[in-house]
Amino acid sequence: MHATIQDLDLVQYDYTPEQYAALARLAAALNRVFPKIQLEVPRDAKGAVPSRKLDDQDCADFTGILGHFHIQENKVDPGPALQWEKLIKEARAIRQAME
């Protein structure tokens, strides 16, 4: 997968199904234990997940799942391959099954 993060052109293989499953289970468990951590991702004005550091106030106000690159300009993880929509959809399904 190819994308730009922090104005850097990056290439990365996609995560495996097992990695997505583990991340989704972790996110769902965190939401269950810490309900203020929402199963949401940051979005820009067009509804896309931003590929840059969030403004300090936006970061402070956000209560969902973030990538390292959302909080530090010198980081690019989890990288361009992470399918944020897939992760959140799977996490929500797992969380709903916990009820």
What's the topology here?
Layout: E1 2-5, E2 8-11, H1 17-33, H2 56-61, H3 84-98
Antiparallel strand pairs: 1-2
Helix pairs in contact: 1-3
What can you see in these coordinates?
By secondary structure, the protein is mainly alpha-helical. Helices cover 38% and strands 8% of the residues. The protein has 3 helices and 2 strands. Strand 1 and strand 2 (8-11) form a beta hairpin. It is globular and about 40 Å long. The mean pLDDT is 96.
Unreliable stretches covering 5 or more consecutive residues:
none
Mean pLDDT: 96
What order do the helices and strands follow?
EEHHH
| Strand order across the largest sheet | 1-2
- Work out the helicity level: 25-40%
Return Rg in Å: 14 Å
How many structural domains? 1
Q: Could you describe the largest sheet, including whether it forms a barrel?
A: 2 strands, antiparallel
Distance between the termini: 35 Å
Task: Count all strands and give the number.
Answer: 2
Instruction: Please indicate the percent range of residues in DSSP E strands (runs of 2 or more).
Output: 5-15%
Structure in a nutshell:
By secondary structure, the protein is mostly helical.
Name its key features.
single chain, about 100 residues, mainly alpha, two-stranded antiparallel sheet
